[in-house]
Design brief:
5-stranded mixed β-sheet, mainly beta, 3% helix, single chain
Length: 846
Amino acid sequence: MLNRFVRATLLAGSALTSLVAPAAFAQTATPDATAAAETPGDAGLGEIVVTATKRETNLQETPISMAVMSTEALKDRHVTSLYDLADGAVPSLRIATFEARQSALTIGIRGIVPLDANQPAREQGVGIYVDGVYMGRQHGLNAALFDIERVEVLKGPQGTLFGRNTEGGALSIVSKAPTGEWGGSVEAGAGNYGSRTANAHINLPSIAGFSIKLDGVIQHQDATTKNPMEGQAGWNYYNRKGLRAAVRWQPTSSITNDFSYDVAKDENTPFYSQLLNYNPNGCGTGTQASQPACTLPGTAYTNLTGGPVKPLLPGVTVNGSSRMSEADIGVPQQVSVDKTHGFTNSLKWEVSPQIELRSITAWRGVDATQWDNSGGAHRPPLVNLGLGTATSACTAAAPCAFSRYSLADLRQRQFSQEFQAVGTFGNIDYVAGLFYFNEHVSDDAATPSSMGAVATYTNGIVTGADYVTIPFCTASTPAFAGSAVNGCAIDRASEVWSKSYAGYGQLTWNATDALHITVGGRYTHDQKKGVLHYSRNVNYDTNPPAVSVGYKPLDASWNRFNPMATLAYDVSDDLHVYAKYATGYRAGGASSRTSNYQAFDPEDVKSYEIGLKSDFWNNRARFNLAGYIMDRKDSQVDISSIQFVGSSSFNNLVTINAPGTTKIRGIEADLTLNPVEGLTLNASYAYTYTKIPPVLITATDTSGASTSVYQNFYIVFTPRNAASGSIDYAVPVGGGDTKLKFHFDGNYSQATQAFDQFATKNDSSLIFNGRISLADIGTGNGRNLTLSLWGRNLFNEQYVFRRDPSNSLPSAPTSSVSTGSIANVLGDYGNFNAPRTYGVEASFKF
């Protein structure tokens, strides 16, 4: 295997860093999108059409920092779901799983990345749009992608035209529309880990103004980490299926109505959570001062108790350097299931050359059932087997429980309606609109133990253990929402109703052929109501908690006006510069992971950006650059906190608003070169600086004693430096349109935090992908065949993309704010990235 230095050199070469010093660049458009946009006979780089301003414009003349990935770019990288973009194809776009689970994605742009948007009453910081429809939840986002025309990544606040929760930007996915002509494609492929794919996209001939397009997708991969327990699923498995039908009705030349319906099912398992080390901070019973590394942020302990740290169970593997292909202890593991479905109706009516009226109506739903047993014996509850003793509490009649099984259900339904008026009067381009969004979400969760340890003896001394499954979800209390926690003691169950109303407008005054002044604003009114039905197996509906708990249903509303202004100047036909001021906000909510349903307020961001977009070298080179300053107030951050229910206390995930101003600063750029016909080179870079002011954390114990400690917080999954480079080369073969095509890309990310409250970082990453294809082989009658060989993570890079240090530190304070417990200290645990995957594909177009 090539060492890391050699791989870094390959990235530098593919990124052409020798041509783009200094290294201060970010991606504004991918080269593959450029290649896809070229028309026959074009010399150099072609025009890229985008819809970021709600009208079709040339990317280079649009004063927005954005990246575009075309159909061909997605194929070259073998992107089958959004999570495949987590390798850093767009450096400022960050995608990660929530915990180890593939069933919910965390998506961020420019340092706006929530740790736990998994909660029903919390919003994302980046708006996800599919064909103009806002996706309210991050659940179901990892479903199979259908026939995608392009993916637009709009960077920075999009509070005017896109609005809802688009502080960091928007990710807009645009599907291919029906053509009205007979044709289509079928594709099939196979690869390692038992992977197989099949896609079909069929356009039917137009009849009486109606055009129909049908899409079907199947994606499967076996587990990459095996489960030793017979009959149980392994980890990093997925099986996705989806169908989409689209109908375009054009009764007149001025009216186009697009209707689509899609349904998808995603069966998956989480990434395996390995134990990376054992008691790395040297925790033990004694004074806190004697072991400064064993410190929980936000606390002021004087003593640590509960030790010594428990020894590892027999057979448990500590491995922080390489990805495990088989788990050390087999555990029950069932697949999680995400089901998505919905319809969209988009009507466009060109009333006159000056005005086009649009209506976008959508209803969507997500049903997610989560089963996550990825940690096994690598996280609490911990078992003290009593090794070396003559007796053990872990007996066949009463096995010692471990292996936390995280079960959850989520049901979401949303309806949205948007009206737009888009047009031009004289030298003024305008967009105006009204938006309505209505969402209902319910969820529940339980965390039973699924395994038990039974001591085994040699010569009367405890020397090992047998591991057995133990019954779980057998309590008499029924679940609130769904089957995954049916019969379990319920950790939490909540329900949320959200409504959003907005009106917006944007005007661009083309003062001269070169000077363009844009102003816009959006007024938003958000309403949110929510309740906790259960918390820590207490039914709040029938047994309201004590007043001291402080539980309060959520009933809040917020109003915001978000202005923006842009000054753009065309220095020449090939050089465009702009300065932009934009704002955005993310609605508040409440944390269902707390027993008082603790509420938090919205956060607001102001952004100042300058940029340039240029084409040169006779249209064979393109360089785009943007620099920005973002100030965010009332940042929503997550911390561990103490909540009380009667005499019991719990360590909860609490979302609070950090005081002061969070600073986010960055530079983004992209260089694309087409030095000779058929060869396209790209280098991209994103620099992102983030700083949250320290937060004063006050903890109070049951006796009334309290401490106040300043704690640092971090923005997760946001590398200071990230880069991407690619090489694409196409060589004509024989006659006709047949080409031999080569694609190679490299993607680098500096190490980042995975949790708001811990300075502990994940590993840096350097991932390479490639594809070779013999494309457009003529088979007669306008049909052609493409054969390809693809590979992801070509050098089988192994890095921890999520590292959790919470189990290697003292627990949060319970009865005393001055004394911490190390009774559950084990070690850091985390998740390695996916291994090298590769396969072959055949695509037939007709």
